[in-house]
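Protein modeling request. Please complete all fields; requests missing the sequence field cannot be processed.
Requester role: graduate student
Desired output: 3D structure, token encoding
Chains: 1
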Amino acid sequence: MLRVAILLCVVLLSGLNVSVHAAEQPVGMVEQPCPPPLARPPVVRDLLVELFIEPRKLTPGDLDRLMKNPQFMEFNEANRSRAAQDWPGLCRYRAANASALAASVATRVVFMGDSITASWALADPVFFDRGIVNRGISGQTTAQMLVRFRADVVALRPKIVHILGGSNDVAGITGPTSAQDCKNNIMSMVEIARANGIDVILGSLPPAVGDVLLASSAAFTRRPGFEPTTTIKELNAWLRDYSAQQRIAFIDYYTALAGPAAELRSDLGNDGVHPNRKGYTIMRRLVEEKFSDRPR
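Delivered output (296 residues):
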């Protein structure tokens, strides 16, 4: 039985709207630095939902089919090109933020995070309506989240921000970092939110196992020496303590999703890292049970 963890570090669950044949890039500080957003190909979305959202046993053939899909590969390369020009992802939600501010429905809750948050919108799109917005970007570290926090959270003037990040810091997606750097980024986001009258929910990192496969531009590269379990547990312990000290809400996703070997339960995640639809159903219940003023 295939038991692998896949960190989809750039695009698999991001939903990033990009143009493969982008117009000439602007130079320097300009009024409109972002190209117009384009819709993700439906075939790519459907494939991602089939493989990673609908509960199933993921096989090597599934991954091979993904990596040989021409539309996915074109989408993947476009994302890589876009990310190289926009490290913090400030362009990802620029148009959506403008539309949200112009709409009559006020933003109540912003879900800020990485692919764990981004793929939540694929698994449960109905959850993200009526003033609940998703601002997850696949592959992002807490440093990248911090840079875009004002644009993607504060500017929307929500009542609550749900912050779920750190998995990619643990994995070193953008390079080596320290636990304290990750904690500093999270504390800074919390402080910015509270300074702007926004209540904070901190979520624990979901479980993940070693022997991780990293999605690259055209292939999956094995990292057999990578073992994140201890670091994830330590960071989650800090998140719980920090939340208590600061008197902010904390949701323990880890305990609800973990199996006996500290892995993401196979029935709750297809790839060992990202929850599937059943996993997100549990996560949504934890959010709704945590608060008397529920987001839905």
